[in-house]
Specification:
The strands form two sheets. A five-stranded antiparallel beta sheet has the order 7-6-5-8-9. Strands 1-4-2-3 form a four-stranded antiparallel beta sheet. It contains 15 helices and nine strands. By secondary structure, the protein is of the alpha+beta class. It has three domains: about 1-70, no CATH class; about 90-95 and about 180-345, D-amino Acid Aminotransferase, Chain A, domain 1 (2-Layer Sandwich), CATH 3.30.470.20; about 110-175, Dna Ligase, domain 1, CATH 3.30.1490.
């Protein structure tokens, strides 16, 4: 264990945003009077003791918690190991590759999409996509993460030939029609697509458990990821109402009870088509049971919900920060179950 976590530490240091870390350290020093040297000591110690990253020491507010609370948080190291068990690398390509995902889960996807190869082979289909009713298109990479490299453009800016050229220039490899969100979500935040994250977990009997529901809210951004400076709020599973404020992953920013730009109330916001959303994700979770723990990104339109992505490495921050507590004990139950019943992954497709 020590060797593995020492390797993790090296990875965390290589990935550090030093400017952000400096801001976090100054914030904590002002708030708790812990010196930067003390913070370094405690954060590195937490890497080994709690299997989290250096940045998560701040995001989980370990500087405020006792050991019994710290031990309830699932950090990067733990999630990496957990998700490899639940979604083995040999099976997860169907989720990691966005175009494979869109084809596999086509029954739950409403909007059209085309790959670079399909555009080159069928420019008439590309023209039809450029003229989709939203008037906009989204250029993406099939293996992109956290919204990186995404371009939202007007379809009228392109011909099939210039679209193909732009995709190659930006290292993106497919394009999809922009999804027009429900009028209520547009009222909340019109800058980008606000998606619902539904996290499903299969037990030993392939029963679907929903272990997290969150609303990702854009803040003057075309993408809704926390990493891009946006906020996320918890959703009550039974009612579909947001039951907590929007939170940032940046510890220097305060929670938002109203949207910071539109002023719309976040707490109490009703997600449209909630029961349909829940049932869709349950059905999607059973389509391929080789991947057992999935974070579904759902767009809610005026016509109903549709899938945007399925994530095998769903975000532990989006899961835990909005509810302000560690949720690792939920995963421990399923981890122990998988260890007890290793035959769960014996079949290639059940």
């Amino acid at each position: 264990m020590f060797t593995k976590r020492f390797l993790y530490l090296g990875y965390y240091i290589r990935q550090l945003d030093w400017g952000k870390l400096s801001r976090f350290q100054r914030h904590v020093q002002k708030k708790s009077r812990l010196s930067s040297i003390s913070q370094w000591y405690h954060s590195i110690r937490s890497v080994f003791r709690y299997n989290i990253s250096i940045e998560e020491y701040y995001q989980f507010r370990f500087y405020e918690h006792q050991n019994n609370i710290r031990n309830t948080y699932a950090g990067t190291g733990y999630m990496y190991e957990y998700q490899r068990h639940m979604n083995p690398p040999v099976y997860r390509a169907i989720l990691a590759d966005k175009t494979q995902f869109l084809r596999k889960y086509r029954a739950f996807v409403r909007h059209p999409f085309l790959t670079v190869q399909e555009i080159a082979e069928a420019p008439d289909k590309a023209q039809a996509l450029l003229e989709n009713r939203s008037g906009k298109i989204v250029l993406k990479s099939s293996d992109g993460q956290c919204g990186r490299g995404i371009e939202v453009r007007s379809g009228s800016d392109f011909t099939p030939e210039s679209l193909l050229q732009r995709l190659r220039e930006t290292d993106n490899d497919f394009v999809e029609a922009f999804v027009t969100q429900h009028t209520e979500l547009m009222r909340l935040s019109p800058s980008g697509l606000n998606t619902v994250r539904v996290i499903t977990q299969l037990d030993k009997s392939d029963q679907v458990h929903i272990i997290g529901t969150r609303l990702r809210i854009t803040v003057d951004s075309a993408v809704d990821n926390l990493a891009a400076g946006n906020i996320a709020a918890p959703i009550d599973l039974e009612t579909g109402k947001v039951n907590g404020p929007g939170v940032y992953s940046d510890i220097t920013k305060s929670d938002e009870y109203q949207h910071p730009i539109t002023g719309v109330d976040i707490v109490g916001f009703q997600i449209p088509y909630w029961q349909e959303t829940v049932e869709m994700c349950k059905s999607a979770a059973l389509l391929d049971t080789r991947n057992r723990s999935i974070g579904w990104d759902v767009a809610i339109t005026d016509e109903g919900p549709e899938l945007i992505e399925g994530n095998h490495d769903w975000c532990k921050l989006l899961w835990q920060l909005p509810v302000k507590k560690g949720l690792k004990p939920i995963l421990e139950r399923f981890r122990r179950e998988l260890e007890k019943y290793p035959q769960i992954h014996a079949d290639t497709h059940r």
